[in-house]
Amino acid sequence: MSRVVYDGTPIEYEPGDSLAIAALRAGQHPARGGTLCLAGDCGNCSAIVDGTPWVRTCQTEARPGAMVQRHPNGSHPSPGGPEHHTQVTVRHRSADHVVIGNGDSGAAAAAALRSEGHDVLVLDEADGDEVVGVFDGPSIIVRRNDGIEHFHVHHITLATGAAEVHPVCPGNLLAGIFTPKAAAKVQAAGLDLGNVVTVGAELKAFHGEGRVSEVELVDGSRVSCDNVIVNLGSAPRDVLARMAPLVPVQIVGPAAEAHALPAAPQEGVLCPCGKITVEDLDGVWNKGFHDLELVKRSSLCGTGTCQGAVCMPHLRSFVADRSGVEPKPFTARPAARQVSMAEAAAGYHIDTFRRTPLHGEHTKLGATLDKFGGWFRPWNYGDAVSEYWAVREGVSLGDVSTLGKMMVSGPDVVEALERLYPNHVHDIKVGRSRYVINLNERGHVLDDGMICREGDTRFLLTFTSGGASTAEMWVRDWVETWGLKVHVLDRTVSHGAINVTGPLAGELLRRAGVSDDDRPKFLQHRHIDVAGIPCHVMRLSFTGEASFELHHQIDQSVELWQALMELGAPLGIKPHGLQALFGLRLEKGHVIVGQDTELDSTPRRINMDWAVKLEKDAFVGRDALIRTASLPDERRLFGFTMDGPAPLEGSVIRVNGDVVGHVTSSWDSPMYGHAVLMGWQKRLPHADVVEIDGREARVSAVPFYDKEGARARM
Amino acid sequence: MNEFVETLLDLPWQVGDPKPAYDVVIIGAGGHGLATAYYLATRHGITNVCVLDSNFIGSGNSGRNTTIIRSNYGIPESVAFYQHSLEMYQRLEDETGCWIMHSQKGQIWLAHSVSTARTEQTRALMNQAMGAKTDYIGPKEIKDLCPQIDLSGGGRYPVHGASYHHEGATARHDRVVWAYAQGALRAGVHVHQHTPVTGLLMDGDRVTGVQTSKGNISAGTVISAVGGNVTTVANWAGVRLPIRTHALQAFVTNAHAQEFAPIVSSNDLVFYVSQTPRGQMLIGAEYDRFASYRQATSFAYLQACSKKSITMFPFLSKLRIMRSWTGICDVSTDFSPIMGDTGVPGFMISTGWGTWGFKAIPAGGEQLAQLVATGSAPLIEPFGLDRFAKEAAMADPSSAGTR
Amino acid sequence: MPACEPPRFEGLVGWRIIADPSALDAAPWPAGSHVVRISPDDAFVIGAAEPGVPGDEHAIVTPELGFAGAAVSAEQVADIALHHIEWQMPTGPCVAQGQIAGVPSKLVLHADGSALLLVACAARHELEDRLG
Ligand SMILES: Cc1cc2nc3c(=O)[nH]c(=O)nc-3n(C[C@H](O)[C@H](O)[C@H](O)COP(=O)(O)OP(=O)(O)OC[C@H]3O[C@@H](n4cnc5c(N)ncnc54)[C@H](O)[C@@H]3O)c2cc1C
User: Fold this and answer.
1) Do B49 and B22 touch, CB atoms closer than 8 A?
2) Domain A264-325 has CATH 3.40.50.150
3) Residue B195 CA: which ligand 1 atom is closest?
């Protein structure tokens, strides 16, 4: 015979035994007492099984070596055993007709469906299929010992039968009390219940030490016994239907039948999960808690592990007795049969981190990578300040593959872009590009990027890395709303992009085979080979230095990067990460949408009115901007300078001691030897001198660096 | 008798049907409706007040939230308001004489990336400046406060740091509702359950009362505090609100030994965990993305939340899920409440509580009562409906997607 | 757990075409290329030769190197579906799109149940990890 360990003691079991039966076979109650239904409804047989607390031992087959511990007396259990997520298998299946419950009514329903030619799947916990819940879809989640199953189904028939009513009376937490079906199961397993007494509504109380030794009846008589079978009728087991009221579920058999409520409880524990007594219910009733829901919430009866399976008939009967109106059952919610969080989580992945084609290069170069907008990106390669200097004084590479990139083409494309963007689009010449912002209908800045004209009816749009994920939806939504003919193709993950930036960027391109004539000028873009690799080269500048963004097919990213690093070695080339980039762009006063802007930043609040042409007929956000243009506006983003060290990003900005805003970006400028910042003043009058971090900061015109923009044009 | 029952308060219901007229009729006996009635009666002597609910008291979100009380918001106006509410909660047991099971736990808001670390640091600095006790802390301090955490985040979500909100707390939601109900009833306020309001009485452009299943009731002022149903009710008065209605779900496990001290949230993963006084682990996340009035729970939600929580707290993987539920939330476009005048005379609202309004019940009720009684309530002035037309939204990125 | 071999991915070389659906329907594809119709206006033409779309002068025709693909047998498809696909699997031939093991993917299903599994190169490492 095999053995399981129950509270430290090995006990023997027969094949097919549940853990609860095994305990009974050893002469013990599987938990610490209470009526046993052995049907998975109540919590009276719960124990810690292999480290998982609150397992219904009646539903768990005994396995050799299983470790079972009773919950501690008077306190809550703790999970135990190895902590790490046990790998739970998940299986996704579908089924046309599912019948839940393989009792008489379920078997009949399944047979009838089959005779009509349907494929029928029958799920029953006797076969190890515990239905956790019925959800929209319809879908059904099933727990098995070997994993979790997620079913897509079309038709659900609920044949879950009825649950037997537990007794409520003094002594009902003793061992040795069974419902009739539980007793039948125990006897079928070959156990002898000894001197067993069967009682019904005439029951008054149980007596005994630890286990029942005497039953007291309402007539005052007492019968001695070893075990008691209590027959109080049953209540529909319809939670699965009640938890999914809008899912089409057909209920058949006893689950669908009306059952009379038991007599109103007089004394004893009503809710074994929370040890809540009839006296407790009287207490809340007398204090004015009269709704079934209020009685439940105030007494906590029905809020324990069995979720009302035991107490609900009695609770309803109690309320009916006191109020004269029989209340409907309270709402049922998943889980009908419990799952562990590891089981629930099975098959789910929180997110997908994307890698740029240069991921391996960054790793080789010892970069510290961090997650930005779902991508792994280099934060620095060890020393942001030297990366900064490489950009300011020499040449540097930045991996900007994560930028949003989108091809648009079609007869209506100019019209569409004019309506999408607040800037002019029609006058962008082929081969030229323009900086643009995009707005929502409320006139708030969503994102920014570039428009590059490739032909009369063909453009390439860029978006920030953060904005890329919603850009395609945004463009498509509007184009379709307007009914314009425009083809849209997102290229974000198909094209790599390397930013070659610094005063020596032109020189590096020369060494990579790009003649000075071929090199695009500021705000031009051109298709040329760089180091023998076809690139779409866009000339713009985020860093403040001459910058060439080399867009290319991702299968050539590594080759291009390595070639540039090698050709740039004599020029002292260094790649730069985001940390340096954030400082570089800050010196140039470029905002980062989402960091410097807020949910409701209009262009004027971030000093970008110049990117909005209100004289245009129509563009998204125009109406809102016109409506709000005449309103006084207190909120404005400013540039500030102050002596170092740079205050933390997020520091508050004060004027005369009052908080007027906060610092959105902050950087100890290696170039200036003092801090440069951006931040909000949201109160009029805007001050020229503010207090940050207890120190004085002065409003400064932005850009801080190269106000004329000469360096970007070099 | 068990301790929960023993320490219950009384609900001294008035008898009979509502009167034909009141000075103030409040639609919705959730926390906000009842607290407003309570403060009208106890602070301003306005007792000719009736609160009506289509169901039982606290049947809306006030009785189905995850009970987190905190003031670590992202804009000065919000921090000031919620800090006031948090402090009122700390005194509420003394004031009402009711045990609301208030428990200061501290809230840890994890950051797993450079950019969210910046957000949490910003939160801490703004909070400190506005009088809320929040510090930015590092991994070691986090582990000290919450030994169950896996700082590596399962290898995928390493913890950079966190903001730690010292006064973060919880209280039993129902008991807060009942405490205000008891106080209001004792002060003479009428509260009628199972009395749905089905329309408003109008005289020209003025709201003069409500239609109910028990007849018309006229009122000097009607206040809508109906949680997720606000769009319907406001529409009766012709008021359009920048509110979208979303479902928010949560779930609890069975009870376990008391071991988990703080409230822990994650900025990157967007979920939060705490342990209730009854030992259950209480877990939630952001609201469902699509707008809906549907009150069903979804397995996808249990799946996602479970995965996120066991990733950070492996011990949770063996805990069994007991019950999940859903509330219907009134989410404003700037994630801040909308309180006070609506532009329609005689009609005021308390809405936009979204997924974060439990913590606001004391201050929300107090301030709205003050506004009704005195015509001025500076703490909620920034949260008026007119802010949207004035382009002065209270956009608080720190409250988006959180409780 | 999975009875089958995990899929072996390789970078795909091809062309991406966005054009009027009718023009795509009528397009003469280069011999030897394999056409995946992602949506009515969107085709991924696997193969080196540049296709043309005579019926739409505004068509976008551009190299597509952003996908990795794996040929998967009917058994592999069934195995992947069983363990990694939440959505209901259609029967081929068709293109199905959705998350596979949480990664946005496409499954080009053939009539015999085998398929070409496509994933963006940027997320390939995640899918490989999760199916492997
Ligand atoms: C799952 C979940 C978790 C949450 N967690 C938190 C948290 O941790 N911290 C936090 O601060 N906030 C949390 N919230 C939000 C918080 O619960 C709500 O913002 C708050 O309870 C709102 O209170 P209320 O009084 O405005 O509305 P409700 O409590 O919803 O009350 C509205 C009442 O109006 C009644 N009503 C509606 N229409 C009518 C009508 N026509 N006539 C009469 N009566 C009507 C309803 O029956 C209801 O009782 C959570 C919400 C949910 C759903």
Assistant:
1) yes
2) no
3) 43
Q: What φ, ψ does residue A691 adopt, rounded to 5°?
A: -115, 125
Q: What is the DSSP string of B261-326?
A: -SEEEETTTTEEEEE-TTSEEEEEEPPPSSB-------HHHHHHHHHHHHHH-GGGGGPBEEEEEE
Neighbouring CB atoms inside 10 A of A95's CB total 18
Q: Are the beta carbons of B397 and A595 separated by less than 8 Å? A: no
Q: Kindly report the CA angle at A417 between A585 and A445, in degrees rounded to 5?
A: 45
Cα A49 from Cα A80, distance rounded (Å): 9
Binding-face residues of A in 536-575 toward C, CB within 8 A: 553-555
Strand segments, DSSP code E, in A400-501 are 404-409, 433-439, 445-455, 458-463, 487-490, 495-501
Rounded CA gap, A26 and A29, in Å? 9
Contacts with A34 (C-beta within 8 Å, 6 or more apart), sequence order: A42, A44, A172, A173, A174, A175, A177, A272
Pick from A89, A356, A487: which is nearest to C18 by CB?
A: A487
What distance in angstroms lies between residue A221's CA and the mean position of ligand 1's atoms?
A: 53
Asked whether the predicted pLDDT for residue B156 surpasses 70, the reply is yes
Determine the CATH number of domain A383-567. 3.30.1360.120
- ipTM > 0.90, yes or no: yes
Determine the pLDDT at residue A698: 98
**Per-chain mean pLDDT for chain B:** 95
Domains in chain B, please, with CATH? Answer: 21-65+173-242+333-399 (3.50.50.60), 104-168+244-332 (3.30.9.10)
Q: Which CATH superfamily, name and number, covers A632-714?
A: Aminomethyltransferase beta-barrel domains (2.40.30.110)
Helix runs in A287-412, H state only: 292-299, 312-323, 341-345, 359-364, 384-393
Pairing of strands B271-275, B263-266: antiparallel
Q: Which residue among A133, A274, A280 sits closest to B299, beta carbon to beta carbon?
A: A133
Joined tokens for residue A458: 């063909």
Q: Which CATH architecture has domain A2-69?
A: Roll (3.10)
Q: Which two tokens stand for residue A379?
A: 């934060």
Q: Which residues contact A83 (CB under 8 A, 6 or more apart)?
A: B314, B315, B317, B318
Domain-wise residue ranges, chain A = 2-69, 264-325, 383-567, 632-714
The band of A86, judged by pLDDT with boundaries at 50, 70 and 90, is: low
Whole-number CA gyration radius for chain A: 36
* Residue A117 token pair: 């030619």
Helical segments of B97-198, H only:
114-129, 139-145, 173-186
Quick one: average pLDDT of A536-561?
97
